[in-house]
Structure of Putative MFS transporter:
Amino acid sequence: MPPGSRFTIDDVPPVRFHYRIAALTGGGKFIDGYTLGILTIALAVLPPDFGMTPFYAGLVGSAALVGLFLGSLLLGPLADRIGRRTLYTADLVLFFVASLAQLLVQDPVQLFVVRLVLGIAIGIDYAVGPTYLSEVLPKKLRGPLLGGLSAVWRFGFLASIVVGYVLSDLGPGAWKWILATSAVPAAVVMVFRLGVPESPRWLVQQGRYDEADAVVKKWLSLDAGVDDLVRAHESATGPRRSNLANLKALFSRQWRSRTLYAGFFWIAQATPQTAIFTFLPSLFVALGLAGGLTPTLVQNAFFAVGGIVGMVVVNLVTRRTMLVSTFWLMAVSVAALAVVPEPGAVVVVTCLCTYAFIEAIAGNLQFVYPSELFPTSLRAAGVGTAAALSRIGAAVGTFLFPIVLATFGVQALVFGTVCLLVLGAVVSQQVAPETSGRGLDETAAEREAPLPRDVHDRR
C-alpha cells in the first residue's frame, strides 16, 4: 500500500458514494419505521372476532421489539466477525419473506411469531446499517447523514400510517394487506444494496490492507488511503475475539460505562415513543378525541418534520447538550396530560404533537452517538447491544401500554412517561460522554474514562 495518502476516510471530500450508502442505509431505516408503524393501523382495523384482547395486543405490539432485541444482540455482533456487507443485504431477504408471511396468519399467536421474525430483521439492520455507514463517512458528514437515518425512519413510520389509512376500507381482511405492504420497500432496497463493497475499516481490522486501500481508492478517492488505520492496527495488540468475547468485552471495566449508557439513553427515548406511537389511535380516544386515526396522522407529520430539523441541529450543538435539553423538553411537553384531569382537544393535540416533534429531533442521536462510542473491532457489537438494551424498555412499555391504559387510565400512563424522561435528562447530564467534532477512531479511543465533557467543537 503506498504510504502518505493525501486523505484519510475521516477527512476525504464528500463523493457520490457517501450519499449512495446513506440512501441505502436510510432505505433500511425507512423499512424499519414502516414495519413498526404499519401495525398501528392494522391493530385499529382488526375484526372483532380475531381475538385481540389487551393482553394479545400488548404481546403482538411488543413482538417486533423482542425480535429486534434478539437480532441486534445475537446477530449484530456477527458483523464484527464476517464483515458488514453480507448481513447488510441478507437482513432484507428476511424482511421480504416475513412481510409476505403476514398474509397467512390466522390468530394473534401466529401474528406474534411473524412479527418476532420481522423484529429480528430490524435488529440486524439496527446493528449493521449505522455501523457500516459510519465507517465510510468523513467526520463532517457523519452527524447529518447518520442523524438523517432517524428522520428517514420517521418518514417510513409516517408513510405506513398514510398507506394503512388508505387501505383501511378494504374490508375485514384489510389488516393483512396493510401489514404485507412492508414487502414492497424491502424488495426495492434489497435489490439496490447488491454489490456494495466491504467496509474498509473492517478490512483493515482483518489485516487485509490491500483490499481496504483498493476499496477506498475505487469508491472514495484516488488520493485517499488507509495508512493511518494500518498504523493504528499494527500498533494494537490482542487476538481476534469471538462474538461471545466481543459481548463480554463490552461489559468489561474498560467499556461497560459506555455500553450501559448507550443502552440507557436509547431506552429512555424509545420506550415512551414506541409505546405511544404503536397505540396512538387508542391513546387519542382515551384522551377524549373521537376518530383517532386523523390526529394520529397529524402527530406523525410532526414526527417526520422533527426528524429533518434534527439533521440540522445535530451539527449545531454538542451531543451532550442535545441529549440533555431534549429530554427536559419532552418531559415538559407531555406534563400537562399527566396533571390536567380532562384536557381539551387543543391541549391533547398540542402536547402530543410537540412531544413528537422534539422526540424526533432527539432521536437523531440514536444512530449517531452509539457508533461514535466504540472502536471498529467492537462497533457492530456495541451498536447492536445498545439497540438491544433499548428494546427491552420499548418491548416492556409496549406490552404494558394497553394493560395500564385499561387498568389505571391515561394519566397514570403519561405520569410514568414524564418520570422516565426526567430520569433520562438527569442521568445524561451526569455521565454522557462528549464525542462532537472528532474523527471516528478518536471518539472511540480505547480508554476507561469517558471523553471530556468540556468539548465545544462543532462538526
In short: The radius of gyration is 22 Å. The CA atoms of residues 135 and 201 lie 6 Å apart. Residues 446-459 have pLDDT under 50 and may be disordered. Residues 16-443 form a domain with the Growth Hormone; Chain: A; fold (CATH 1.20.1250.20).
